[in-house]
Structure formats: C-alpha cells, structure tokens
Amino acid sequence: MLGDIEENRVFRSKKELMTCLSIMSMRKKFQYKVFKSNTSFIVVRCVHPSCSWRVRANKLIESEYWMVTKHVDKHTCPTDFKTTRRRQATSWVVGECIKRRFINPGRVFRPRDVMDDMKQRYGVELSYSVAWRGRECAYENLRLGTPEQSYNLLPGYLHMLMQTNPGSFQYLFIAFAASIQGFSYCRPVISIDATHLKGKYRGVLFTAVCHDANQQIFPLAIGVGDSENDAAWTWFLKRVKDVFGENPALVIVSDRHRSIRSAVEEAFPRAFHGICIYHLLNNLKTKFKSKNKELEQHYIAAAKAYNLQEFHVLFYTLCSAVPGAKEYLESVGLDRYNIMTTNISESFNAVLVKVRELPITAFVNEVRLLCQRWFQQRRTKANGCSSRMSTDVENKLEERRDRAQTMDVICADQYTFDVVDGDRNYCVDMAL
Fold it and tell me: Which of 44, 196, 226, 411 has the most CB atoms lying inside 10 A of its own CB?
C-alpha cells in the first residue's frame, strides 16, 4: 500500500505519485482531475467545481523524485457527489492494486475476479476490458512480463531449467528428468490430449501422461503449438518417441482426433492406438442420431465386459438394438487395454486450467513447480513403504484376499484351476 498523500512526502517518480493519488481517491470515494501539469510540477483538484480539495507537487532539482508541497485535505463537495465508477481506476492503477495477488504464479485472477476484488476492496465497479488490461499490467509489474516479453524469455528460462534439472529435454517441448526416469516403472500406456491456452497469443497445449503404480497422474511431457493440426501433433509425438522410446507393448489412448490418428501412425507405427470409450460413445450417438439411454447402457456394459465370452453376448445385444453399430464399431476396432479413457489427460488439463492464462514463461514455471511438488510428495510416501509393491496394489490384494476366502479352488494340473464362487464356476489358466 502506498499510503496517503501528505505535505513534504517524497515519491520516487511522478508515476508513483499519481498511483498513490489514484489509490487514495478510490479508497476515500472521490474523484480528481489534473488541473495543471508539466515536467516540473503538477496540480490536481477534486472534480467538483466548488470543492477545495487539492494537491500540488514539484519535481526536486536534478532528481527524478517528486515532493508534495501543498495538500488541502478537506472536501467541501456534497456528500452525494459520489459514484462507484472512478475515473482514476485506469488499467495501470488497477494493476498496482492487485499485483500482490499474483506473487504466487499459481494464483490466477480472471478479469471477473479482478472486478469482484476491486469492488470489494475499493467499492469500484470496473468494466471487463479495464479488468483484463489491469491484470496484464499486474503481470508486467511483477516481471512475469508482457506476452511478447514472456516468449522472448522462454529460451533463457529453458536453458536455466537444463542447468538446474540435468536430463530434461527441450525443444519447445518439455519432459522433466524425473518423468523420463520414472516412465520405465509405469505401465506403457500413454494418454494424450490437447487443450487451448488462454493468453494473448492463445496456442494449444499438448500433454502426454500415464498412471504411476498408485494410479495417480504421472506427467510425461508437455508441448506448445500454434493449433491442433497434423504437423503440430506429429512434431509433439516424435519428440515423445525421441525421449521415451517405443516399447513393443506401447499403448496410446486418445480421442482419435484426425490429426492424432495421423501423427500416431507416423511416430508410433507399431503401437496400439486405442480410443477413449466415452469419446467413442459420443461419436456413436452422433452418427446414429440417438439419445436412447439403452444404447449407452448396452455400450458401457460391453466396453467394460470382464472376459470375451461376456463381451460377445453384450456386444450382440448392443448391435441388435442399434442397426449399423456393428459395422461402425468393428471399423473403429474392438481391441482394448484396461485403461480405456483419456480421463487422466483431461484431469491434468483441469489442474492447469487457471495457469493456462499466464504468460508462457510463467506457465512453464508453474508446470515445473506442480510436477516437482507431486514427485517430491510421492517420493517421500514411497520411502516410507515397507513393501516393494505400491499402496494401491497392496490394498487391492488385501481386498481380493478377503474375497478369495469364500471361494473353492480345485487344481486340474500344474497351471490350470477350477474356481467355484457360489453358483459360478471359472477356469483359470496360469500359463496364459
């Protein structure tokens, strides 16, 4: 807070003086206008013609400093001469008022939040455009920079990132060393997605994530491109391949956007490319113009069938209910992995929803801090485990061990067993 105006107070610049005047006028619910101003002095008065409130300040000789030489602090204007719209609430003044809200880059104010904050703290009603410009001024004041400056800073930031995080890969594409090293301990199933950035230059954020052993989001890589097109997706996935290699058992799950399908075929020709079952369901509804709830019920049941025998029964039921669905789904492909959605990608994008508004360098730094925090928390938790298995696996084994107590197991040979669970019989072949 710059405080109030008083005689003999010195300011480092004319801008600091005017900022203090503007904030004080908003806080005390009045408006002023500049009566006279040049390079050596300034006189401001209350906008009401009969009010005696005024301030005069002079620039100190051979200095950039300004000093208040006269201040008539008493207002003689009518008390009803007030409004919630203040002429002093310019974008750069608003930026000064809210900049402390941005000290933590993860704290993001939308223009609507700026409008609410200024109304609550100063009783000032802002237009959306002033709130938006004020937020940009706050970014610049805190040296997060303008969008142009932020893009110019990115190469230097990435260079420093390489110095402090050896092993990270960069090419307007970032995969942190912890992600590169940790992927070898994850199942080779990568979920990919794209979402729009919200800064001045927009652009698209590309993400590649997987599950760790505790079924938590494990970020692998991010990239920034101009739009979601063939060239951008191909570039991004080739960088993913450069860094993480191509596991023979690799599975990629996406919404199978046309550009993604083309890029996967080029970058990972041997990988199985699955489609998110919920995106496929939406495609199915759109293609057959159906809002039938039975279609969704039959589809989800078939998609989540536990074994092939059960799947074929449920798939037949679905195709009987929706003529043409069989040919369409078979053309898409019926193979699947047990990770059947892009939920982890969409969840990761949701975590970043606010920071996607930041200038690019601040955005990249916030992603780094998020991943660093996650990895540290998980490392600490893992170091406290007594088992080689993850907590999630331990819990599942415990739950299934309890269920297994009620089943009868009959050995047929070294690898084959009959399992009786109430009125259900199963054949389990451990050699498969």
Answer: 44
What angle, 0 to 180 degrees and rounded to 10, lies between the N-to-C axes of helices 293-303 and 308-321? 160
Tokens of 327: 């040919």
**DSSP character at residue 417:** E
Q: What's the 3-state SS for 55-120?
A: EEEEECCCCCCEEEEEEECCCCCCCCCCCCCCCCCCHHHHHHHHHHHHCCCCCCCCHHHHHHHHHH
Q: Give the CA distances from residue 413 to residues 202, 279, 407, in Å, rounded to whole numbers and listed in that order.
A: 63, 44, 18
The amino acid present at 15, given as its one-letter code, is K
One-letter amino acid at 239 equals: R
Cα Rg, the chain, nearest whole Å: 31
pLDDT by position in tens, the chain (length 432):
456 788 889 998 898 888 888 888 888 888 888 999 998 999 999 988 889 899 999 999 888 899 999 999 888 887 766 655 566 677 778 887 777 776 554 556 678 888 888 888 887 888 888 888 888 777 666 554 555 555 555 566 555 655 666 555 434 688 988 999 999 889 899 999 999 888 766 788 999 999 998 999 999 999 988 888 898 999 999 999 999 988 888 999 998 888 999 999 999 999 999 889 888 888 888 887 766 777 888 888 888 888 888 888 988 888 888 888 888 888 888 777 778 889 999 999 999 888 888 877 788 888 888 999 999 999 888 888 888 888 888 888 888 888 888 889 999 888 999 999 888 888 888 887
pTM higher than the cut 0.70: no
Give whole-number Cα distances, 355 to 36, 138, 184, 393, in Å: 43, 15, 29, 33
Give SS3 for 26.
helix
Bridge partners of residue 57, in order along the sequence: 42, 68
**272-275 and 251-254: which strand pairing?**
parallel
Q: Which pair of tokens denotes residue 405?
A: 């107590």
Please provide residue 272's backbone torsions phi and psi, each rounded to the nearest 5 degrees: -80, 125
Q: How far apart are CA 351 and CA 354, in angstroms?
A: 8
Structural contact between residues 420 and 407, judged by C-beta atoms closer than 8 angstroms = yes
Which CB contacts under 8 angstroms, 24+ apart, belong to 346-352? 346/193, 347/217, 348/193, 348/207, 348/209, 348/217, 348/219, 349/193, 349/195, 349/205, 349/207, 351/217, 352/195, 352/205
